[in-house]
Write a structure and sequence with these properties.
Elements (H helix, E strand, L loop, with lengths): L2 H22 L1 H22 L2 E5 L4 E8 L9 H4 L4 E6 L2 E6 L4 E6 L4 E5 L3 H5 L10 E7 L4 E10 L4 E10 L9 E5 L3 E2 L12 E6 L4 E6 L17 E6 L5 E6 L6 E5 L2 E6 L6 E6 L36 E3 L5 E6 L12 E5 L15 E7 L6 E8 L4 E6 L5 E5 L4 E7 L2
Bound molecules: calcium ion (CA).
Amino acid sequence: MSIKSRALITFIILFVILIFISFSFKKEFKSILNLTKFYTIKKLNLYKDNYKIDTVLYDLKISKRSINNILNKYNYYTNNSPVGYLDSYNNRLFFITGQGSFYEVDDFQNSKFKKIKNNLNSILNKNNFVKSMSVRSLYIDKYNDKIFISFTYHEPETKCVGLEIAESNLSNFTNLQFMSKFKTQCIKYDNFNDFNEMSSGGKLISLTEKYLLLTTGDFWQNDISQNDKKDYGKVLIIDKINYNHSIFSSGHRNQQGLTIYKDKIYASEHGPRGGDEINSIVKNENYGWPVVAYGPTYKKDYNKYYLKDHKEYKEPLFVFSPSIGISDIEFYNSDYLERWNGDMLVASMKNNTGMLRQLNPGLSLYRLKFDKNHEKVLYSEKIFIDDRIRDIEILDNGLIFFVTEENPSLYKVDLMQ
Ligand SMILES: [Ca+2]
């Protein structure tokens, strides 16, 4: 046989094999093609400044404005720290960056952010911030017209880290003068690997006219959440006048969302692998971390926690499994999107999802529909945004805003007219 005919036979055999493979995996090939098409369309759509998302109940108009110009060289990929936090006052929207610059969103349409003078430079000790330390919460208190922020503190001399609260009068949102008011106990470290500041919690809201609630994460300290002498892995109740504090609930890991709806308290909890929780927070209850959880650690250490049920500890209201990288939660409490009234919006982060990002958990806004007593989640709708959502704020007029980290942006959610 000549070399030519041998090559021809080899070619034919390879061709037949290829046809056979294509035929056997026809469905898979087709779905990959479709998926790529779907992904490309979605991706192009999501790159626009304004676009439509069709959700189950509404066609929503999503508007997106870059906030890179008000961030000081913020890059999520290099420092992993929170981009910042939102809150509102009489339908005015405010944003504090992770490093403490304070803005009013003056004109969203034209990306105008008005900087508000403040003294946070002298309060935050930013020079002492290590790793991803930052502001952890912004709360504008309508009970007594004050602004509260929480942030991670670090004292290099004593090798201490923890959470701190500062407050300012509203002062008409000009020249805010914050004063440091409260610090959680020192977490002593020998080197920076001894603590994880990403697991700091730090969400702050008013419980009543007199009291604040603050979530404190476990900073990855062993068993600190079950120790009643420690401020961490808890929800703390704090007196707004003298800043005396006590434990409201315990056994938490890292709760980055906290909200009150119809006199019930809800918190999100960044759990281990496959265990992001929504909890109904009740005074003196223990939520079980790190004894019980619905997910193992990322090292798949199945023996470390009780994973079957919660034994005598309080069960979560809902668990996202696989985890979505749960962050802020807010209830939609307006008739503007009437069919969403009473639903919880959940921010999710997570960013390790590669090419087919929209098929994976996270990078989305989730809408949870509750039963009429708000004690049970009936369903969860995923609204894919394609970025890490850190914080959500819903204005009294029903407009929804949220802030993202990979391409730092402020988003507005409105009805597609
Ligand atoms: Ca919020």
